[in-house]
Amino acid sequence: MSDSSRIPETTPPTAEDVSAAVRALLPELAERASTCDERGSLGGETMAALVATGVLRLLQPTRYGGLEADPRYFADAVREIAGACVSTGWVTAVLGVHPWQLGLFDDRAQHEVWGDDPDVLICSSYAPVGTLTPVDGGYRLSGRWRFASGCGYASWAVLGAMAVDGTGRPVDFLSLLVPHTDYDIVPVWDVVGLRGTASDDLVVEDVFVPAHRVIRNYEQAQLRGPGQRVNPGPLYRMPFATVFTTAVTSPLVGGAAGCYEHYLTTMRDRVRRSLGGGRFAEDGFVQAAVARAASELDAAALQLDRNLGEVYAHARDDEPIPLRTRLRARRDQVRAAERAVEAIDLLFRTAGGSSLGRGNRVERTWRDVHAGSVHVANDVERGLALFGRGEFGLPVEDNLV
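User: That's the sequence. What structure does it adopt?
Assistant: Structure tokens below.
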């Protein structure tokens, strides 16, 4: 890694320092993108470089060496990284948003993770597939979870599980923090897109999880949590549904935007070998496609930043966050995912046969953006329906608001 991408260790970094370090690292990430895709993981060199920039501490409490930065810095950094390599941007988003969530847990859990090393990382798999048994002081947990992106670099995992009553009826959705010594990683990741994220399975077999390492998803949605008593800053009074979902949409927008710039560079002087020849750049249909793609990407980034900024401002001013603002943030976030897909589809269709070759930048980004779009947080119809219910004055009950 170049020295320019490492933050000086003599003074505490600022969010601007992190942004500069990320930008300095982008050429190296772009150079490794093809290898990342072929190998199926980021690699230790890339992960060490990301840690050194400080990007994974942007949303971490200052009490544990983080920056507690305005979340727009994080979203912007993720988009830039994804513009160089979508898999690296995705892993940055996922591993970088979990320090924010850990800030909502009981301080004992935060100290267990960061007490000795503020660079310790956390992965996740939120599907409530775990089997819980209440015991004195906590729970016994078992299960197998899928899609734990970047889990090979993490020392802890946040796992979802459903608490049930004596009849087996689900009564609560919980997130449990588990150390790597209590789970096994099963390498199963062999997919069409986001191949470099190494989103493998995690297996837990009857381990004890103390109560201080458990948080109710309902409390998160209600902007309550034990961590807010020790992390009173505005960042930790923002909704999970805004912070997390924006994190997993930002790599799609950034990846498509990076590919757009690549497309312009490579297509500017290209000449058609059929259909009468001529330069691609002079084709009116290509020009219109470029305009549409650029508009979709601009709209996506502008709306994401607007909503993050407004929600953060409400939290900073200690004001209630209006439900309509929260619903609008979800609406625009899923639309951002949809816009990213629309943009990369336009580029793919107009790039010609050259976009079909495996490893081609357009082909790889097309696969990555489509893969990321199937994440549950990017479910367009679900997010839009929530907003629609709110507009009609119907009750909205969903933890992803």
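The chain has three domains: 3-114, 122-216, 238-391.
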